[in-house]
């Protein structure tokens, strides 16, 4: 009986933390989202010398509060799943751990720069909560259109890279090291900067023939920017037309998550996990 | 009887100032538009040192003329509505006041730089007159398409910001302060500059690995620029197709404005304000 | 009888020069196109100091040859029309004269720089021959789509300018003269550079708040670039759909040109000018 | 009989090298693709001074291995076709030779810089293998859409060049040599940089009137970028609509290649070359 209560309590916790169907679950996700964004703002502000100098103590305390919150959340996540090892070794389990420990490590390895990188990983956690976005429902067609055009855009971007390598090599030979095109990788970098119409201007062609080739590259880039746009447009138009959603590839809006195996893609109204058979929880 | 004449006169004034259905109303809007644009040009020219030095007196007098015109208009607007307080406290009421007083304030606080900001607010007044644009009728479908795609474009831009923060942090760690990436906010700024293909070139990656990441960011930016374009294209195509305008979300072309409550969204042919029941005026 | 022969000869000349229906007419247009392009290349090369120094005599002689060719053509055009005054005072008549005289003027006003501008006007003559393009037939739908979307794109560009002025003024106040935003027109120029994703980098925001606003402007620019693209896409799709060309607004492919009044928009198979009744010539 | 075996062996080799229908053929193409990409990476790394200094021996040996592999392949290609001369004088035959010999030539002409150009030609060989891409099948509609819009995009790009020349000349006259617009070709280069929204910033307008013209050019560029995008979008939508592929212009997916005349465009199920009547080989 005690065991039953214990399991119920764990189930409740699981529902709050892993799912977003209940008000409590949505609230938890919202608080977590705010905490993550706040922690990112902290990392940013700390990197600014002048701010860090003036508000060091405040930033330090805030960071500890965030770290403790993340620690509690991490423990709660481990406790509420049936197979903690599976969670700990999962992608988000590792991210959760890595985004919690930097502050603890900073006591041992004081002033290690690379810990900032670990803390920046926290942003990846946003994507877990973004299953919330699914509820917006608004962007479903968009997601489908992007899925449908993924292959074509990849082929296109691959072609862009090939063109950049060929033109980059030509520009290396034409302009040479004295005009900033010190080696082929740098020339290719310049070519990508130009082809994508970014145009930093840190390296620019100086010889007339180099400027002529650059002009061709720019006009080419101007012309081919039409390709990915055309693809997405057309796919999106295609997705929009049949008002009945395509059955074979629907965007998943159910946020239930199996307590046992952490599997997430359950059908609406599912009573049991379709993978391990473990019972799913409803309100 | 005298009261009746007085009301008629006010009604006439109201019709001229607030509506654009009558020739007089259109003329008033046109003059106001010219005055606003002229006042903006004045603000611009005054900010140019060399022009201000040579034509100071001319600019000063012109500014006084504009200010007096705006003052008269402001008083006329107050007089012609039934509830002046409602107009004065409304968004455009405040804008009208703020764009009128700078010149008066400049007598008291001579040479205060921030008054320029107040005068620049005048441009916001253009949007009030832009209800004129509705008569063009041409851009109705466009407005509908933009409304329909607003939510999706917001989601997209939010995703762009998240990507910029993640890549910005990575670039801060890779390039470091010696190459201009002095802190994370500045790195994020650089990343947005690059991702949107603007490419100022004030900060550029100097290390090979930094240039490689930059190349990926640029190609990514080149690829994802297709997304908002695709959305607007598809929505616009969708809006264009059914020649009968969608009934639930029509663009409003009636410019009548209630004398009593300043409400503007009246149906064509409406005799009374649908909010306060006050009679509307026709030619 | 002699008069008849004379008229026939003039008519023949008119057909060759002004129309492109006959082989002789097409050949004339082609030679003229080559001559115009060659003359433009000459103007370009002359402006390059090092080339002008080495090949001055060659360029000078070539320029004289082109000038004499253009003179002959100009006289032939005057002779072959019935009302020479009408041609001389027409848009292309003036362009033809202005693109012919610079070399003659250069004898009188030696070394006047502005004569280059007159010679550059020759490029405008290309557009007259571009009625040849109509024969390609390929771009008719495109032309229609552009015509249909002209009004909407104008409204859009007008909105871009308003946004640029408002943001430009804000940036002038935020960044100030010490960071390169010396006056409002320059700030607006910077804003247009940024909003259109050109990003020269000659002026860049230096303050954190300025960089933040710049980021918003860039993301905004990234978002709104979708609008003109969406418009053209949708219009072009719409133009493409009904295979029967819209009757009310057809692209004109007939190149006949009235000898009398220089009117050009004749229907296919027209025997007489629809404006002055003068007979049109066929092969 | 021996002759028969010999021919069979050659046929087998031909099928492996020139076709991609069999597993062996696909494997060969894959290995070749990897070898080409590896050779390109080698060329790139060699151009980087610091890497070349440290790993010169390794790069040199790798280059020799690649060269020998390419030599074997080149000989195999000559052996397996019936008319070696035709292969040797074909486009890809020359590319294959040119991308093989640089290392041999480097023994004779030690340190000749231009040999890098020859080695860079290897990238062109990728396109031969890219007939593999056809099997992806995904981009067929895209290829058709691009083919259909090629003519229109060419006309568009031609118009862009004309605009660039006219505006470039105007900017040369307005800004003059003291502001970096040293000659008309350079001005045209600047104009293309601006019109395509690349914006290097190596040359920027300094005079107010120049900045005003530049603003117009940028807004123009912003507006006309919509044109190629609209064309591709619309064409792609058009290609997507009729699910039955257009019969008159299908993308070729058959990779059979005639042993005799190297002709490649065979119909599926073809038994004999449609050009020379030579029998084709199947698995």
TrEMBL record, chains A, B, C, D:
Q: At the top level of its lineage, which domain of life is listed?
A: Bacteria
Provide the organism lineage as a comma list: Bacteria, Pseudomonadati, Bacteroidota, Flavobacteriia, Flavobacteriales
Ion transport domain residues are: 26-241
Species of the source: Xanthomarina spongicola
Q: Which UniProt keywords apply?
A: Ion channel, Ion transport, Membrane, Potassium, Potassium channel, Potassium transport, Transmembrane, Transmembrane helix, Transport, Voltage-gated channel
Q: What is this protein called?
A: Voltage-gated potassium channel
How does the protein associate with the membrane? Multi-pass membrane protein
| GO BP term, example | action potential
Instruction: Kindly list the GO molecular function terms attached to this UniProt entry.
Output: voltage-gated potassium channel activity
Q: Which GO terms describe its cellular component?
A: voltage-gated potassium channel complex
Signal sequence coordinates: none
Q: Which residues cross the membrane?
A: 27-45, 57-76, 155-174, 212-234
Q: Where in the cell is it found?
A: Membrane
């Amino acid at each position: 009986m005690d065991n039953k209560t214990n399991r119920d309590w764990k189930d409740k916790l699981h529902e709050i933390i892993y799912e977003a169907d209940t008000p409590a679950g949505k609230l938890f996700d919202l608080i977590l989202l705010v905490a993550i964004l706040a922690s990112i703002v902290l990392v940013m502000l700390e990197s600014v010398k002048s701010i860090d100098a003036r508000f060091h103590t405040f930033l330090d305390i805030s960071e500890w509060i965030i770290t403790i919150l993340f620690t509690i959340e991490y423990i709660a996540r481990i406790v509420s799943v049936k197979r903690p090892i599976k969670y700990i070794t999962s992608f988000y389990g590792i991210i959760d751990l890595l985004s919690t420990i930097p502050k603890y490590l900073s006591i041992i390895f004081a002033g290690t720069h690379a810990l900032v990188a670990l803390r920046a990983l926290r942003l990846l956690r946003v994507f877990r909560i973004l299953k919330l976005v699914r509820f917006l429902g608004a962007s479903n067609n968009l997601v489908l259109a992007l899925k449908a055009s993924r292959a074509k855009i990849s082929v296109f971007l691959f072609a862009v890279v090939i063109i950049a390598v060929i033109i980059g090599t030509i520009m290396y030979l034409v302009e040479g090291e004295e005009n900033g095109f010190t080696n082929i990788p740098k020339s290719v970098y310049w070519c990508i900067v130009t082809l994508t119409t970014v145009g930093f201007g840190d390296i620019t062609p100086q010889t007339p023939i180099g400027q002529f080739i650059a002009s061709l590259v720019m006009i080419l880039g101007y012309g081919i920017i039409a390709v990915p746009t055309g693809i997405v447009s057309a796919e999106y138009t295609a997705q929009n037309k049949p008002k009945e959603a395509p059955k074979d590839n629907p965007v998943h809006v159910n946020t239930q998550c199996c307590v046992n195996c952490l599997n997430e893609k359950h059908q609406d109204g599912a009573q049991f996990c379709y993978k391990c058979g473990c019972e799913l929880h409803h309100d």
